[in-house]
Amino acid sequence: MFARERLFLNAERNALYPDGHQLAAFLYAAVGDEIPDSAAEKFGLVDGELKKSGKPKIEETLLGSNVLPALVEIAAGKTVQLGVVVGRAYKASGLNVDGWNALEDAERETRLAQMVETLKQEHAARPPRTPATPKPKKAAGKKEQAPAGDKEQKTGENKGGAGGSGEQQPAT
Q: What's the domain count of the chain?
């Protein structure tokens, strides 16, 4: 199956959302990307798109922050989208959408600031990533040698041919 719309994973990487959704955090597939059947089943994709219900759905929106920027820095050079912070704080609150949105602005901002601190601590606790060791480049002009024991095969020879004896058969 191929994606027919841009699909995004949430911060926990356990659900897919369409482009522009508040909980969309990581690009999972762009239009035309192949999606494994197992992922299509897991995320409920139909013909490369998220399932559409027959009746229009009223999108529930979580109120965010009037203080925090759209990209929140959690470490030097590492940022997360405000939507990720809001989504995590909302989930940690245990409130429903109406309860979250009914919070006083100051209370919501406090909870968001606490979540930013939590994200900073989580990031600091992760072991640093080590860059992969690059493969050595071949020197220009040098031919790659075949492993010992391998002989160049002549046209018409059959290595291991009929019967699988491993002996070379002469060309006929």
A: 2
Q: Give the relative orientation of helices 105-125 and 82-93 as an angle to the nearest 10 degrees.
A: 100
How confident is the model over 97-155, as pLDDT tens digits?
A: 888 989 999 999 999 999 999 999 988 888 877 766 666 676 665 555 555 555 555 55
Exposure of 1 by Cβ count < 10 A (0-12 exposed, 13-18 middle, 19+ buried)?
A: middle
19: in domain: yes
* Total-model pTM: 0.45
List residues bridging with 169 in a β-sheet: 158
Q: Which domain holds residue 12?
A: 7-50
Dihedral (CA of 158, 164, 167, 172) sign: negative
Closest CA to 112 of 61, 59, 67: 67
Q: Is the CB of residue 1 less than 8 Å from the CB of residue 40?
A: yes
